[in-house]
Every structure is written in structure tokens, then in C-alpha cells.
Amino acid sequence: MECAVVVKPLRSLVISDREVLPLVEGGKGISVSNGESSGAWAKAGGVGTFSGVNADFYDENGRFITAVYHGKTRRERHEELIAYGIRGGIAQARIAHDIAGGGGRIHMNLLWEMGGAERILHGVLEGAKGLVHGVTCGAGMPYRVAEIVASYGVHYYPIVSSARAFNALWKRAYHKYADWLGGVVYEDPWLAGGHNGLSNSEDPLQPQPPLPRVRELRAAMRQAGAPERPIFMAGGVWYLREWEEWLDNPELGPIAFQYGTRPLLTAESPISLAWKNRLLNLKDGDVLLHRFSPTGFYSSAVRNGFINELGERLEHQIAYTAEAVGEHTAQLPIGGRGRVVYVTPTDKGRAEAWIAQGFAEPMRTPDSTLVFLRPERAEAIRRDQVECMGCLSACIFSNWAQGETGSTGKKADPRSFCIQKTLQNIAHDGDVELELMFAGHNAHRFASDPFYAGGVIPTVRQLVERIATGD
Q1: DSSP 160
Q2: Cα 296 from Cα 413, distance rounded (Å)
Q3: How far is CA 420 from CA 13, 29, 102, 120, 233, in A?
Q4: Could you tell me the residue ranges of all domains in the chain?
Q5: Model-level pTM?
Q6: I need a surface site. Which of 232, 286, 334, 428 has the fewest CB within 10 A?
């Protein structure tokens, strides 16, 4: 089948001091975009991005090493996590560099709200000098990333979802390091996979078109005096022929297109065959924008058994008080000691019905509610909370925070999950129905795109060449 052709030519751009195709591999954490995938993308003439979030590392024979935590305290395990993260980031940078063979550009993606982000960034850039050309960073407000990255002579690429976010970063810190601004990643908060930058003023059920928002972002960059660097459009990009009005558009300036979901389905992608097959069979609506993440951010993932079970927790939830207040007049004994809390008579009936169905273990939340779980699930949650290694700067699920106290000061929330555990599991052959599977909202297009007909899984080069034609 012949490919459609982009009417306007796809012009190369200077990105991180090299003229490359304006096609960027989006970074995906926990080993999902690694040195092999990013090196292949760069070798094909674009910008490859490996994840600096808990990246895989290897022994002297190149064998993958499973991270084992020996520390008895969260603080001790947190230090191990940082050491592993630095080692893994350096390993992936070297692999990407070797595969790229001098082609394209190699970037590293960092989650600013991950545990030890600044130390890991320093460690990887120090240990992989000359191998990383740019750093993309989002999930939070990474004010210090420009200073850190510029000190190593590397370009920085903040990930934002609005002009307002860029302005805040620029005015507070980035204007001091204007020369090292390589570009800005606009990540569509309604379409992108993984964690999304929806603000409290934006409705998750009312998506806004990206063109006006990116136009506003460029206007804000120009007004602030930022250099005319590329904006990476990330989230919802599939066929470039659908984005022709973005090419050579003076209002938008230089535009590159970032792909997070499509690179998952390539020969070099490290995800399991089961995961790839699941992507090939998704339907429209199979990706859910939700707020279960322990980061507190919205995120997008495939609806599967993992997501359904989290939804079930919310359905098995009632409010309680420590004393009889208002309508909370019915006594409900909970826990091994049968301590009494007060709920409404209606909610007491609901709770008793859930208990009869096997959801017999109530767990308290920070919002003065109880969620009723099966005992084995409640036990797994407690175990995961106890074994926390501080993979986030602050975690809703375990109440870890990397400050002096080591705690958020709030009760751990059983309605969330250990993100480190599930992402490590799915990245290393875990059951795709029982683990968190991030994906963009266009992932259902794998099933209808003729490029993948018959279950074809292309190489990265084949995919980049296909995208460049408009398809």
C-alpha cells in the first residue's frame, strides 16, 4: 500500500547543535525507552531519548542486574535507589551512543519529581560526559534543571503543558541560561501517555485543541525574549499529514514532533511481546486518563485488570467519623481490635454487603474514608508501603518524602499504588493485565493503521522513514 505524502516538506532542524529530522522519540520511564531504542532512533536521523528514571544496568558481561534493596530503612533504600539510577543512566547513555554511531542526537528524559532527581542528573551527566546532548524534564516545576544541565554544556528541554508554566520557569530561573535552552516540549495534557500536566483550572473531560495552546506558548516565549528554539509537539501525534498546518507556520516557529507511543511497537523496543500484542488490539477508549498515580498527577494508561482494581477500591469506599456526628450515627467496628467508627446507616449496610462478598479488610485513607479490600490485597498494599525505597520526591501511597523527616506528614493512601514496583514488573515481562501500562490516547490506532497489518512490528528505522512520508 502506498504511503500518503506530506505536501509541505519535512525540513530538518538544529536540535542540540546538530541538524536532524524534527522527529523525536519521547522518553518513557523504567527501561521502556532505553539505549537500544534511543540509539536506533538517533541512528535513523532523529532525536532518541532514553529514560533516566531507574534505568536498567548490567554486569561486566552485559547481563541485566535486578535491583535488590538491602537497606533496613527507607532512607537507606533511597540511597541505594539513587546509586542504581546513576549506574543505569550511564549504562543506557553508552549503549545509545554506540548504536547511534554519531548520527542524530541522544537525549535523556528525567522525571523531576522522582526521588533523588538532582543527584541522579549530576551523576549521569558526569559519568557519561559527551554522550548526552540534551535533557528533557517534566512532572513538576524543574526550576534547577537549567542550571545543572548548563554546567555540563548540555541543552535542556523543559516539558510544559501551557504557556503559563513556561513563563513561571523562565522568569524564575531559565532566563539566566537562555543559551542552553534547546527547545520546549509541549506535552498535550489530554492526549499524551504517562503523567499529564493538567492544572486545577483545566477540565480533564473537556480537552482543548493543541494548536491555540502551542501558538500561545510560542507567543509567550517570544515575549519573554527566549531564543527561537523548536517546540516539540508531544501527545496525539500519529500521521504527520494530519499536522500540515503546523509546518512552516510563522506563528508557531520551528516545530518538531515527539512520539511516545508509536516507538513502543518496534523491534528495538524493550517491552515484552505480550505488551506489543496488547497494543495491536486496543480499541478507542481503552486508554484512561485517571488520577490514581502516587505522584498526585493525572496520568494515562491502558484499561486493564490493574486499573480496574484501582477503580474498584473507589467504589468500595465510605466516609467515617471518630465520633457520632450529623448523619454518622451507625457504629461500625473495624480492624482486629474492632474499634468503632461512625458511618451513615446506609453506608453501614453497604459495608456489610462488601464484607459478605469478601472485601473484608477496611483501610483508612487520608480523607477520613474507608476502602474495603480483599485481605490478600490489603496485605500486599501494607507490604509495598513498608518496602518503599523513596522512588518519588513525595509519595501519596507510602507517605515518603525525601526531606529531613522522610514523610509527607499525611496518612499513607491505600487508593494508590507502588509505581516503582508495577513499572519494574511490566518492563521486565510482568503480566500486562495486572500491571500499570502507560500509553497515549491514540494507541488504538495501531489496530487500524495499515503499517501494522498482520501484526507487523517494524524496526525503528522503518518507523522513522514511514513517519517522514506523512504516515
Answers
A1: E
A2: 11
A3: 36, 10, 33, 16, 28
A4: 13-271+445-469, 305-427
A5: 0.94
A6: 428
Got the DSSP string for 163-198?
A: HHHHHHHHHHTGGGGGGGB--EEEE-TTT-SEEE--
Rounded Cα–Cα distance for residues 294 and 285 (Å): 23
Alpha helices in 259-374, H assignment, sequence order:
273-280, 305-315, 345-356
Select from 168, 185, 169, 167 the least CA-distant residue to 229. Answer: 185
Q: What is the mean pLDDT of residues 381-401?
A: 96
CATH topology of domain 13-271+445-469: TIM Barrel (3.20.20)
Are residues 48 and 96 in contact, defined by beta-carbon separation less than 8 angstroms?
A: yes
| Among candidate residues 7, 417, 298, 144, the one with its CA nearest the CA of residue 135 | 144
What are the angstrom distances between the C-alpha of 184 and each of 15, 89, 383? 11, 22, 40
Amino acid 100 reads A
Question: Residue 8 corresponds to which amino acid?
Answer: K
Instruction: Give the DSSP letter string of 88-152.
Output: HHHHHHHHHHHHHTT-SEEEEEEETTBTTHHHHHHHHHHHTTTT--EEEEESS--TTHHHHHHTT
Residue 203: CB atoms within 10 A of its CB come to 9
Residue with cell string 543559551: 179
- Quick count: other Cβ atoms within 10 Å of Cβ 333? 10
What is the residue type of 234? A
- Spatial separation of the C-alpha atoms in residues 24 and 234, rounded to whole Å: 9
Residues 221-246 have pLDDT tens digits of: 999 999 999 999 999 999 999 999 99
C-alpha–C-alpha distance, residues 62 and 325, integer Å: 63
Contacts of 119 (CB under 8 A, 6+ apart): 82, 86
What SS3 state is found at 376? Answer: helix
Cβ atoms of 3 and 469 closer than 8 Å? yes
Please, what is the Cα angle at 190 between 92 and 161, to 5 degrees?
Answer: 65
Work out the average pLDDT over 210-221. Answer: 98
Question: Cell numbers of 393, please?
Answer: 520526591
pLDDT at 1 over 50: no
439, HSE (Cβ side, Cα atoms, 13 Å): 32
